Amino acid sequence: NKKAFVELLFWKSPAIVCEMTKGYSSLQEGEGTTRSRVPPWTPQEEQELRELYWKYKEVEGGDILAAILAHLPAPGRTRRQVVKQLVRM
């Protein structure tokens, strides 16, 4: 690759460096990156999150995220994951 030197100018994670040396698309899905370790949101989870948000957004004096996390059926979700998903939606 004649333009590989340009890639060396930017910060790389170990997974990206491995991919550069072994060839692109060499990583199997679910390996190496942080994003792939987080389970994706299913449409049912997104719908439940949307409903919980609309239910608890008008409650005054309370933490909306704490209420959503308490009633979210998927117990493995963190506060940060819920915030990122709400912003994305």
UniProtKB/TrEMBL annotation:
An annotated GO BP: DNA repair
InterPro entries, A to Z: Timeless
GO molecular function terms noted in the UniProt entry: DNA binding
One GO cellular component term: replication fork protection complex
Pfam families xref list: HTH_TIMELESS
Name of the protein: TIM protein
Species, as recorded: Loxia leucoptera (White-winged crossbill)
